[in-house]
Hints:
The protein is of the alpha/beta class. The protein folds into two domains: 2-8 and 39-66 and 84-163, no CATH class; 164-409, L-arginine/glycine Amidinotransferase, Chain A. The chain has helices at residues 40-45, 50-53, 61-77, 85-92, 101-119, 126-141, 143-156, 186-189, 191-201, 238-255, 272-277, 297-302, 329-335, 345-348, 371-379; strands spanning 28-34, 81-84, 171-174, 177-180, 221-224, 227-232, 258-263, 285-289, 292-295, 304-311, 319-328, 339-342, 356-357, 362-365, 383-386, 404-409. The strands form five sheets. A five-stranded mixed sheet has the order 5-6-7-10-11. It is globular, with a radius of gyration of 21 Å. The mean pLDDT is 95.
Amino acid sequence: MVEEIRVQLRKSEVSNPVRLGIYNETDRLTAAAVWGPVGTEAVLAQLLPPEISLFLDKMDVPAARKESLEYAKALNDFGVDTYLVRDQLAFLLPPQSGLTKEGVLGALIARATQLQSQYRKEMPGYQAVITELVEGDIARYGETTALTLNKTISLDEEYPLGNLLYARDQMNVLLGRRVKSSMTKDIRREEIKFYEMVYNDLGLTNPIELPPGETFEGGDAYIHNGIVYIGVGARTTKGGAVHIFRELYPQLQAKGYICVIVEDEQAAIRPGDEQMDFMHIDTFSAAAGDRQIAVCEEEASRRRIKILEGRELETDTGDVLVCDTGKSQLQFLQDQGEEILTIPLSEQHTFGANFLALNERDILVPLETNGGTLQTLTQAGKNVIHVPLFECTRGYGAAHCMTGQLHRQAV
Length: 411
């Protein structure tokens, strides 16, 4: 039974300290966090308008629940210590008194009814779907714990937090530090506190925090061949990237790494659908191996590379220089001697770039329909492994977006 999948639960059930540190995106992945069993939060979220919900298609949530649990199991089967955040959170939330199954179910169904009427949307059979999901949670966590969880993330916030599924966005591990995200969109801002509850319980405290007014989302950074790439555009500010560079500066110096921003200089005036399609750098580019990187060339040709350099950052008066290379991301990668694995624009739109490298050879891909991308990866010597995530992509993310990477081990 899929509901029996419990990869890791509470801190008390974790025998070893949680490992933290990523120095190369294609080192062997050894520890990661995923959301786990998707629930009523995703049912309610997709009843909002897409500009609020960020769900651009209808999701079969019970099917997505099965996919996400089987994805967690697949990671664990590949030797990744996999932490299910939703399971962990369920037992960390203080139980709310006086909750009854009938009362919470009634409130969830009433909220769904109200949203359908308000936004003129239809979801046939939503009462049965909500009931099925709540009963699944009760079987998984116990009644009080399940009802508290559903009320907290589906009803108590201004918006139901359906995007919690995409576990990379709330934080990112760069070198030996964890960066706590500061999200741009209203529906996503409240996700951070729930993920932080879990990471703190796992002992992953003291993250880098963004200054007021600056934003950063976890999908906007990765490390590849000694370079920290930070996307700047619709979701991450230049000031946020500069702050992260300041915090990482001692480690960058010690490792001999450099840090660059991959800037979309036209982000503010791009149409909303393009902002969504290219919201993070991991939506159009992904490290695939040593000196190998998969990119959608159309977007990589638009993005501009600017190198961040520190001037006397060891002192209180130090400053950061943003040095324009005059090169697009594509040109920069070519100058670095990278083998460019091209992702067709049409397949970028269907998450061709949003795969997850487990190591230098093995790559998890979410959709088998991206034939050009799969052929390119295979010809580059990769062992391509399909993990079905069709319904999970309906919320606008795939394998890479769903995985909060915590530790990679150099081989």
